[in-house]
């Protein structure tokens, strides 16, 4: 089941917070499929916000988490401050 527009926006807002708090925002962290470029947290966030193919893939993964645990839990995980080293 697809999230409501309001829940989708909550995910995008929470992902934006996650990306801004990521300790190395310009370091490549993930790629979608063989031959695709690795994306940094900053690039992945841009893809999520613009809902490009890669951004939609990330949103689908987050939406799966919402189905299993609920929107509040997923948002809380994305927006919690990283532990201090």
Radius of gyration: 13 Å
What oligomeric state do the depicted chains represent? single chain
* Largest sheet properties: 2 strands, antiparallel
Order of helices and strands: HEEHHH
What count of structural domains?
1
Indicate the proportion of strand residues: 5-15%
Number of distinct beta strands: 2
Helix segment tally: 4
Backbone structural class: mainly alpha
Identify low-pLDDT runs: none
Q: Care to describe what's here?
A:
This protein is mainly alpha-helical and 85 residues long. The protein has one domain (5-79). Helix content is 62%, strand content 6%. It has four helices and two strands. Strands 1-2 form a two-stranded antiparallel sheet. Strand 1 (28-30) and strand 2 (39-40) form a beta hairpin. Helix 1 (5-21) packs antiparallel against helix 2, helix 1 (5-21) packs parallel to helix 4 (71-79) and helix 3 (53-69) packs across helix 4 (71-79).
Briefly, what is this?
With 85 residues, this protein is mainly alpha-helical.
